[in-house]
Design a protein that fits this description.
mainly alpha, Growth Hormone, Chain: A, 20 helices, globular
């Protein structure tokens, strides 16, 4: 069954809110009534778990991998940078390909590529091999991240979209919490290559289970290879600039100029298209645009906080590595606990106010950790980080729901790509902010300053979310 043409949001007389609400889900299946749909939902959520686990365990294993491959720690950072760059480069193209060729087909290609690349990581004999494999992992993971919600939107009913987004947030939060512990457990008994090998059986099940996803035809639009190249160049230059901004400031500045130039050329090329690679049509929708901006700010603040907390615990509060890991667990676990509740209530109340309340809770928690005299009493650390988790859970579910409901069903793929791009841009900005603070201020004060900066960014995210207005209330997909 072919999807109808996307409403030309912002150009015709259809109001953005009407365009979002007038489109009904394709193949909307009641989850409880269709076992096949449970398999379909499981394949999407487990695929997200694989991508998140892959990132979490690789991050914490960098010192071990560097020692095993006999490379300097600074070079081992490219194991992470290559994956992050590939994700940013491929998110929007994968979303566009999903709309053109069909979500299920591109999603399955992404899972298959991720599996092949994961096997390459498990067999990697050298650092260049591993970096290349991580780059391919990022390309495959981008298809999963870009199309996950779009596929869930085709499987569940319109009333269950908020719940589906909550399930997705729950899967990501639990994976983020389990990743470091899982990685540490594997490294204690096996070689680092098993960090990747253990993901293969689960990935194979996902590939087989994706057959249960609805096979809806795409729009058959041809891919614009020049636009894809400009998009890739934009984000590759940006990520590399972020990685070298401290050691090679002049090179970073040149790369930022190159990135900006390519972005301007891409926008000029895509401006007149009905379904542009960069979703300019959706960004003209007030609610979608506000959600994207708020998402970048929230993830920048969250990342600055998450990166700062281990340094603060170890350098300022004198905690051992094991205790630092244990103190970090309540944040993602609280996100996992609040996500289902947030998804239920976001179906009934204003997503704008849920985003605002969540952003302020996250800001309050980060500011509390930075300002509370924890050297005297560390007991307050856990409730403050749980407040961070509560705030992020509320914000993320409501903001994502608002973002997808602001987009017509036929543009769900590129909406997912934009959502992932906003998240990664925010995370990159937060990491760069943390790096700058460490280079500008003493090591004992930089973490607290980063926590304060993260709190301020989330205050801005909360305030901007209020601009969604009263119309961001319980709309149906």
């Amino acid at each position: 069954m072919k999807l109808g043409p996307a409403p030309k949001v912002g150009r015709l007389s259809i109001r953005p809110e009407q365009a979002a609400s007038s489109v009904q889900p394709v193949n909307a299946l009641p989850v409880r009534a269709k076992p096949r749909s449970l398999t379909a939902i499981g394949s999407v959520l487990v695929a997200m778990v694989l991508v998140v686990l892959n990132t979490a365990i690789a991050n914490m294993a960098l010192p071990t991998i560097a020692q095993s491959l006999q490379v300097p720690p600074a070079l081992s950072i490219w194991i992470i940078t290559a994956n992050q760059a590939a994700l940013l480069m491929a998110l929007l193209p994968c979303a566009a390909l999903g709309e053109s060729l069909g979500y299920r087909r591109v999603f399955r290609w992404g899972v298959a590529l991720f599996l092949v690349a994961t096997l390459m990581c498990a067999l990697a004999p050298t650092l260049p091999w591993l970096i290349a494999a991580r780059l391919l992992q990022g390309l495959g993971g981008a298809a999963v991240m870009a199309l996950a919600i779009a596929l869930l939107r085709q499987v569940v009913s319109s009333q269950q979209l908020g719940a589906a987004i909550g399930w997705n947030a729950l899967a990501i939060a639990l994976s983020s919490a389990a990743g470091p512990a899982m990685g540490a457990a594997i490294l204690s008994v096996a070689d680092w290559r098993w960090l990747f090998a253990v993901l293969l059986p689960l990935g194979l099940w996902v590939l087989l289970a994706t057959r249960a996803l609805p096979a809806v035809d795409g729009s058959a639009r041809k891919a614009d290879l020049l636009s894809i190249a400009l998009n890739a160049g934009t984000f590759a230059s940006l990520v590399i600039a972020a990685g070298v901004i401290i050691e090679h400031t002049a090179l970073a500045a040149a790369l930022l100029v190159i990135s900006t130039t390519q972005l301007m050329l891409l926008i000029t090329r895509e401006r007149q298209k009905e379904a542009p690679l960069i979703p300019l049509d959706l960004l003209r929708v007030h609610s979608f645009r506000i959600s994207v901006i708020a998402s970048v700010l929230c993830f920048a603040g969250q990342t600055a906080g998450l990166v700062a907390l281990p340094f603060y615990l170890q350098h300022s509060l004198g905690q051992e590595v094991l205790m630092t890991g244990l103190y970090m667990i309540p944040w993602p676990l609280t996100v996992a606990l609040i996500a289902p509740l947030a998804s239920r209530f976001s179906n009934r109340f204003s997503t704008a106010w849920f985003c605002s309340i969540g952003g302020m809770c996250l800001a309050t928690g980060l500011a509390g950790v930075a300002l509370w005299p924890l050297q005297e009493n560390l007991m307050m650390f856990v409730p403050l980080t749980m407040l961070c988790g509560l705030g992020f859970g509320l914000f993320n579910v409501a903001n994502n729901r608002n973002m997808f409901l602001a987009a017509p069903l036929s543009r769900s793929g590129v909406a997912g790509g934009m959502q992932g791009t906003a998240r990664l841009l925010g995370q990159t900005a937060g990491a760069v902010l943390m790096t700058l603070l460490f280079n500008l201020f003493p090591a004992d004060s930089a973490p607290q300053l980063a926590l304060g900066a993260g709190a301020l960014l989330n205050v801005f995210a909360a305030l901007i979310s209020t601009l969604q207005g009263r119309k961001a209330v319980c709309r149906h997909a």
